[in-house]
Design goal:
Elements (H helix, E strand, L loop, with lengths): L1 H6 L12 H13 L31 H67 L3 H28 L6 H27 L2 H89 L14 H142 L4 H119 L41
Helix pairs in contact: 3-4, 3-5, 3-6, 5-6, 6-7, 7-8
């Protein structure tokens, strides 16, 4: 078995060594890939706004803002061009690398797998042919068939991938060599089945080994062709990378040089005016306003110097006007002091008059208070009289009600008397009827006639008494009705008396209320006069304080004038006629001219 293995050593599969250039290129692509992301490119920042506070940015050519913008845009344009070149180079490199990895490297791997499969089958055929045991053929036959199917699938993929290329002929040569190799394998198996050793050696040496060598050689040539294509792609990628690096370096150097020149130019254009402005500010801080500032240029620095010139002119005008105002305040404070003295004397006189008025109001308040007390007492008496009158009115009402009850009783007595009279009349009629009946009866009815006569006599007397009672009752009813009418008129009179007394009490209450209101109003006037007296006294104190403040104002005005005099101003005649005025007009500060004319208040006697 060892000898057989040694003899078949030349047919064993040797994997092709990886090219160092391809390995380096693939590792370079893996390391370089994340850096080529287009989203990682920095976006150019927006240029800063140009212009001072309160001033709209200038859009004219030649301003500092436009110069800064142009410089930054130039540098950004160069960086953009370099970035674009780098992106294009990276895209080409990525395309070449993708083509090489996806097509050429994959194809080379397919060729290597096909080479490995055929080498394995060659070893298996060799083992089957040289083995004397039939079990070897049965065991390796299935592996040979499975490997042959895999090889046919790989060869079909290679034919599809390399169709229309220069390697298509090599694939055809591989197919031809593969067909010859299969024939040699079949001849080798047939020789083995014959059992003739010489025939096996002859077929193995003359047909099988040359056919296997041609097939593996054809596969090796196809693999070598793919490796050469991979090497060519790697060289192309390396050339593209070198070109991109040099382009980026060139544009980076150009951007650096241009940016440096622009920075030096801008620094020179900015620092000189700023240094002049700083020196001017130092002189102004030293209270020296004599220096003339000349602003040149239309950019922001020129306008800044012009604004400083306007500021210095405004400060000069301000100092001059403060000096003028100090003199005006001095005169005004003197007038205020005189007016305060006059106002103080008149305030004292007003305070004395107010005290007299307050004393008079206090006397009137006492009188009104006494009148209010009297009105209150009168109202109380009127209320008591109204209460007594209401009680009398109630008693008269009760009398009238009693008289009405007596009249009702008299009328009832008259009715009863009428009933008695009717009974007497009917009794008389009955007596007459009894007498008539007794007369008819004769002697038997004589006693009954006597009784009837007595009854008739009694009935007549009863009727007479009833008539007398009726006359008396009628007279009593008339008298009672007359008394009831008098009681009713007396009640009406008492009701009017009560209403009159109540009106009197109500009027006295209103008088008392008005007196109290007058008392409260006079008290309020008295309080107001007292408050006015206090305010007048306070005004007098304020007048004294105002006089002291006016005197203090005079002293402070003197101090202000001494402070303002520390500013060094050029003479007014120094301004040359026809001199260029600043670009911005100095603000005009109005100077108020106070004129105090205190009014003289005439004293009232």
């Amino acid at each position: 078995m060892h000898s057989r293995t040694d003899r078949g050593q030349s047919l064993r599969y040797q994997p092709p060594a990886a090219d160092t250039t391809v390995t380096f290129f693939i590792s370079s692509i893996d390391n370089f890939g994340p850096r080529t992301a287009p989203d990682s490119a920095p976006h150019p920042a927006a240029p800063p706004a140009v212009g001072g506070a309160g001033t709209a940015p200038s859009t004219r050519l030649g301003t500092l803002g436009r110069r800064l913008l142009g410089a930054f845009l130039a540098v950004l344009a160069l960086n953009g061009i370099g970035s674009a070149i780098g992106v294009v180079a990276l895209q080409r490199i990525g395309h070449s690398a993708s083509e090489m990895v996806d097509r050429r490297v994959a194809t080379e791997r397919l060729v290597a797998d096909a080479h490995r499969l055929q080498a394995m089958n060659a070893e298996r055929y060799k083992a089957v042919a040289l083995s004397s045991e039939p079990e070897v053929g049965e065991i390796l036959g299935a592996d040979i068939a499975r490997t042959q199917q895999q090889y046919d699938a790989l060869l079909a993929q290679l034919a599809e991938r390399l169709q229309g290329t220069e390697d298509a002929q090599r694939v055809a040569a591989v197919r031809t060599a593969g067909a010859d190799f299969r024939k040699a394998c079949e001849a080798l198996i047939a020789a083995r089945d014959s059992g003739l050793t010489e025939r096996i050696r002859k077929v193995y040496g003359e047909q099988f080994v040359p056919a296997a060598a041609r097939l593996l050689s054809a596969l090796g040539g196809l693999s070598q062709s793919q490796r050469q294509a991979i090497d060519a792609g790697a060289s192309e990628v390396a050339a593209l990378g070198a070109t991109g690096r040099w382009a980026l370096l060139a544009f980076g150097a150009l951007s650096l040089v241009l940016g440096t020149l622009l920075a030096l130019w801008l620094v020179r254009r900015i620092t000189r005016p700023i240094a002049l402005a700083s020196a001017t500010a130092d002189r102004v801080a030293g209270l020296d306003l004599r220096q003339e500032i000349q602003g040149h240029g239309r950019d922001e620095t020129g306008r800044m110097l012009a604004s400083l010139a306007v500021m210095q002119t405004a400060l000069r005008n301000l100092v001059r006007r403060v000096q003028a105002l100090g003199q005006t305040i001095n005169v005004a404070s003197s007038e205020i002091a005189g007016g305060n003295a006059d106002l103080s004397s008149r305030t004292e006189e007003t305070a004395a008059r107010l005290q007299e008025t307050a004393a008079s109001l206090e006397h009137v308040t006492r009188r009104v208070s006494d009148a209010a007390d009297s009105a209150q007492r009168t109202e109380r008496l009127a209320s008591e009289a109204a209460q007594v009158a209401r009680e009398g009115n109630g008693v008269v009402g009760q009398v009238a009600q009693t008289m009405q009850q007596i009249a009702a009783s008299s009328r009832r007595i008259a009715d009863i008397t009428g009933v008695i009279d009717t009974i007497a009349f009917q009794t008389n009629i009955l007596a007459l009827n009894a007498a008539v009946e007794s007369a008819r009866a004769g002697e038997q009815g004589r006693g009954f006639a006597v009784v009837a006569a007595e009854v008739r006599s009694l009935a007549n007397r009863s009727a007479e008494a009833a008539r007398e009672i009726k006359h008396l009752t009628t007279a009593s009813v008339q008298q009672v009705e007359a008394g009831a009418g008098l009681a009713e008129r007396a009640g009406q009179t008492m009701h009017r008396v009560v209403a009159t007394i109540e009106d009197t009490a109500r009027t006295m209450g209103e008088i008392r209320s008005h007196a109290q209101s007058q008392n409260e109003d006079i008290a309020a006037i008295h309080a107001a006069m007292t408050r006015l007296d206090e305010m007048t006294q306070q005004n007098a104190a304020l007048v004294e304080e105002s006089a002291a403040a006016a005197e203090s104002l005079r002293g402070q005005t003197h101090d202000l004038a001494s402070l303002v005099d520390r500013f060094v101003l050029p003479p007014v005649q120094q301004q040359r006629p026809g001199a260029a005025a600043p670009a911005i007009a100095a603000p005009t500060l109005p100077v108020p001219q106070p004129r105090l004319q205190p009014q003289r208040l005439a004293a009232t006697g």
